[in-house]
Amino acid sequence: MADKIFAWLDERLGLEGIYGAVLDRKVPKVNWWFTLGSASLFLFVMQGITGIFLTMYYVPDPTKAYDSIEYIMNGLAFGWLIRGVHHWGASLMVLVVFLHMLRTFFFGAYKFPRELTWLTGVLLLLLTLGMGFTGYLLPWNQRAYWATTVGTAIAGSVPFVGDFILKVLRGGPDLSALTLTRFFSAHIWMLPAALAGLIGVHMYLIIRLGISHIPKEDE
Amino acid sequence: MAEKVKSPKMSRREFTKIVTAFLGTVMGAIMGIPIIGYVIDPALKSQESDAWISLGPLEKYPIGAPTPFSFTLTKVNGWERTTTSYGVFVLRHSENESDIKVLSNRCTHLSCRVSWKEPEQTYDCPCHDARFNIEGEVVYGPPPHPLDTYAYKIEEGVLFINPTPQEA
Ligand code: HEM
Ligand code: FES
C-alpha cells in the first residue's frame, strides 16, 4: 500500500529524481570539516523552529519585553529549554558558519567555478551576524540596551552619513520602542527570509557544481 | 578500506539510513515533546483563585431586599494582569444565618449585568430584555438558566463568598 502511494506520488512529483540529485550526489573523498556547511544549515533550521515558538509568548514592546521573557523562563513548561536552545544556538551558529568559511578558504574551495558559492556565503555570514545583532536587543535588559546603544553608535561613526545610518537603525536619535520593533521585524522576518533565500541559492550551487576535492600537494 | 568488507546482512548505505532515521527521531522527540508542553502549558494551568472574599458584616445587609456588592479580582495571564470587577446581590431571607442567597449580577444569556428593580421586585437585563425574579429564576427572555450563585460562609458575623460562581 505504502509502495503504491509512493509510486503514485513519485510519478507526479519526481521524488526519486529529487532524492538522487540532492542526496545521492557523487562526493569526493572528504573529511569532517566538510560537514560544517550541513551543521550551519541544521542550526539555521533549529533557530527557526525555536524562534517561531518564542514569538508565541515574546512581546516586542519596551514595557513588556523583559516581563514576557521572564514568563518564558519561569512561568512556562520548557520555556527555559526553548529559549536556551535559541540563545546558545545563536552563538554556535555564528561560530560554525565562521569555521565553515575558514574550511572553504583553506581548502581553496572558493575558486572557479565556485566563486558565486563563496559570494553568497559571504552574504550568509553577514546575515548571520545581523541575526545575532538584532536578536541581542530583544530581551531589552541592561546588557541588550547598552550593547545596542554602542553597536548603533559604531555604525554612526561612519563619515558624513553616520548620523543618518544611526537614526535609521534606531528609528530616531535614541533607542526607543521604535528600535525594538524594527530590530524585531528584522530579526524574525527580513533577515531570516533573506537567509532562507540565499541558502537556497548556495545549496543550488553546491548541488549543481558538486563538492570540491581536497587539494593535492602539487596543486 | 571498509567498503570492501561486505556484510551479507546489511549494506553500509542501509546502515547509515537506519542510524540517520533513528537519530533524527530521537532528536525530533527531544525537541518536539517539550515544544508541545510549552504550547499547551497555559491551557493546563488553573486560574481559579480560592481565597474567600469578605463582603463585610452580615448585619449591614437588610432582610428581604437584595443588596448589591462589588469586588475586583486580579488575574495574572503570563506577563500581564487583568483586574475585572464583579457584582453580586446579597439576599437574606430571614435572621437565620444559613438562609442567605448570594446571586451573581451576570446575566446567564450573554453576560450583561442585571440590575435590581425595586418596584417590580425583579432583576432586569438591559441587553435582550430578560427578567429574573428575586430568587434569580428566569421570568422571561433568552437566558438559559437562573443567575449563578456564590458559595458563602459566615465567620464572626462577617460574610465571605468564594469567588468562583456556581451555575444554578
Ligand atoms: C548560513 C550559513 C551557511 C550555510 C547554511 C552553508 C551551507 C553550506 C553547505 C551545506 C555546503 C556543502 C559543503 C560543506 O558543508 O562544506 C556549503 C559549501 C560551501 N560554502 Fe557554505 N554555508 C553557509 C555560509 C557560508 C559562508 C559564510 C561561506 C564563505 C564566505 C560559504 C562558502 C561556501 C563554499 C565556497 C562552499 C563550496 C565548498 C566546496 O564545494 O567544497 N558558506 N555551504
Ligand atoms: S445578555 Fe442578558 S438578556 Fe442577553
Strand order of the largest sheet of chain B: 5-6-7-8
Secondary structure tally, helices of chain A: 9
Largest interface, C-beta within 8 A:
A-B, 20 and 11 residues
Structural class based on helices, strands and sheet pairing of chain B? alpha+beta
Using the coordinates shown, work out and report the CATH topology of chain A: Cytochrome Bc1 Complex, Chain C
Bound molecules: protoporphyrin IX containing FE, FE2/S2 (inorganic) cluster
The count of β-strands of chain B is: 10
Q: Any guess at the CATH architecture of chain A?
A: Up-down Bundle
Give the distance, in angstroms, between the N- and C-terminal Cα atoms of chain B: 81 Å
Instruction: Give the averaged pLDDT of chain A, no decimals.
Output: 96
How much of the sequence lies in strands of chain A comes to: under 5%
The proportion of residues in beta strands of chain B is: 25-35%
Helix content of chain B: 10-25%
The figure for the number of domains of chain A is: 1
CATH superfamily of chain A: Cytochrome Bc1 Complex, Chain C
Overall spatial form of chain A: globular
